[in-house]
Amino acid sequence: RADPDAIDRLLDADDLRRAAISRADSLRAEQKTISRAIAQAAPEDRHAVQARARARKEAVRAAETDQNSADDALRLAQFAIANLVEDGVPPGGEDDFVTLEVVGDVPQIENPKDHLEIGAGLKAIDMERGAKVSGARFYFLTGVGAQLEFALINLAMAQASAAGFTPVIAPALVKPEIMEGTGFLGAHAAEVYHLDKDDDLYLVGTSEVALAGYHSNEILAELPLRYAGFSSCFRREAGSYGKDTKGIIRVHWFDKVEMFSYVRADEAREEHQRLLAWEREFIDSLELTYRVIDVAAGDLGSSAARKFDIEAWFPSQGAYRELTSTSNCTTFQARRLNIRTKGAKGNEPVATLNGTLCAAARTIACLLDHHQQPDGSVYVPAALRPYLGGREVLTPT
RNA sequence: GGAGGCUUCGCCUAGCCUGGUCUAUGGCGCCGCACUGCUAAUGCGGUUUGGGUUUAUCGCCCAUCCCGGGUUCGAAUCCCGGAGCCUCCGCCA
């Protein structure tokens, strides 16, 4: 997926920048020498030297302008290039993923209902009023639906804390440079909500953005750093018309617990496997049937070097649907956000990785669908019961 | 929303009024060396970050005193704009 033209443009921009810097640097060096001479010159000579220096001024200014535009050009050329793909990633596009593992048995349910029907029986999801108040792809969670979200978030945070993550509640609005630094203004820019009338801020599609920005422009002394961030997430879902129009599988807003790791660059692959393991632990505790896929190169987005998705079984759809996604962004985000650590040969960029622990709306949809009973009630996985007042089953009212 | 104060190389701090060896002072912390039976103490040296040049090292050079402009031969220092923090007033969950 590397674009040869983009690489050439980058190399050219780099050459131009170096040349511009050398020119500007040497002009500045001369200017400083002259200025110092003026300070020490005898008063009667001073005017003559000053006249000479005045002539330099324009040359220095022009060279600095050149240097600035060369800097900007290099940065643009860099931003046009996606992350390098890790060895072993399957080639191809969206449909060319490789299934790494299938876990659990497909539940046998006669005439399964979808999560909206089940949710209606439980009075857990209100789409009509969501549309009335906010429009399409918005919803209210009510009663046991709202309780389910809190239960899932609490379970996810409890597991993350036990694994050593620092729980974080992160801002859902971020500055442009943070959005840019995480790579979300590249190919996926149309997915992102932008407040531009009075405030130049972006609504995050995931707390990954804020958690990556958290340590921007810092030198990290202790690694790894692991954060479990909770935030609302906002997605325009441009270009997904007609896809998942029913229910709360694909919505403009949802809440999510996201894992985020900062590690040394040479430990990124191991950390990626650990994130995947923690995701599996969470999905396992929900007693869901799922498969793990290795996402193909063409479907990685601009920042990921590799991505593993966990897709859970939705009986009403007879299909696996994505519940979690973990990406190894290697040093891509850290370079853009200027996040380094002390290395053997000076400071070097760290690696950043992220992984979904629990996207609430979609996970609720899956639980209702997957654990539905013939009478319209819903089985509660054991791990979730402590967070739902001990209930073993959710019953229609 | 209004008024005032502040922002210096990890932390604290000098410098700003009165522009020029500021190539930024001192303390703390940290690193190295010396001394000492070990530690402590003491002494000496080092310690912002980024970039350019260099095969590499050494070195040399440029930038960096919150950010962006401006004045000037020359800006940490003067002027304008902005951001953040603090205090007080107003408003508010």
Write the SSE topology.
Blueprint: H1 4-40, H2 43-79, E1 98-103, H3 115-122, E2 125-126, H4 127-134, E3 140-141, H5 144-162, E4 166-169, E5 173-174, H6 176-181, E6 194-195, E7 201-203, H7 208-213, E8 218-220, E9 225-234, E10 253-263, H8 268-285, E11 290-294, E12 306-314, E13 319-328, H9 332-337, E14 339-343, E15 346-349, E16 351-359, H10 360-370, E17 378-379, E18 393-394
Parallel strand pairs: 4-9, 8-14
Antiparallel strand pairs: 1-11, 2-3, 5-7, 6-7, 9-10, 10-16, 11-12, 12-13, 13-16, 14-15, 17-18
Helix pairs in contact: 1-2, 3-10, 5-10
This protein binds one RNA strand of 93 nucleotides through residues 18, 21-22, 24-26, 28-29, 31-32, 34-40, 46, 49-57, 219, 221, 338, 347.
Descriptive terms for the model:
397 residues; RNA-binding; alpha+beta; 3-stranded antiparallel beta sheet; 39% helix; elongated; 8-stranded mixed beta sheet
